[in-house]
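Let us practice reading a record.
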Amino acid sequence: MRANDDMKRVYVNEEWCLGCHLCEYNCAFANSGLKDMTYALKGRPLFPRIHVEEGDRITYAVSCRHCEDPICVRSCIAGAISKEDGVVRIDRNRCVGCRTCVLVCPFGALLPGEDGVMTKCELCTGNTVDMPACVKGCPNRAIVYEDRGGSL
């Protein structure tokens, strides 16, 4: 993935979301560091960086919006969250797990990981892929990676 793709974001078309949770599985696998999906996920708790919310009539995936002026960056007491090349990232070595970022994010995009360190979508920039795993694995194309002419 190119660092200069700062205008591309993950967007969710709620009307197409099936609520299948495949985005969560693909995300958890892509960020597991393992080569075998079965070994990475079977019988283990999932810690995806995207999550599906289910309502009475609608389901949709929630992930980081990589805001133009992210409040999570300004509120992180440890200075663990930064924005580089348009992508909001968490420095796992600096995060103290206080969850202040969870409280301030208006989108509910940050979640604690397996070790208590906060996690969030980083557009799979740490993985060698051409698009985020949640997008690639969405069977109904409800999740897309595209430039919609501006950032949040």
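A brief commentary: The domain at 8-146 is CATH 3.30.70.20 (Alpha-Beta Plaits).
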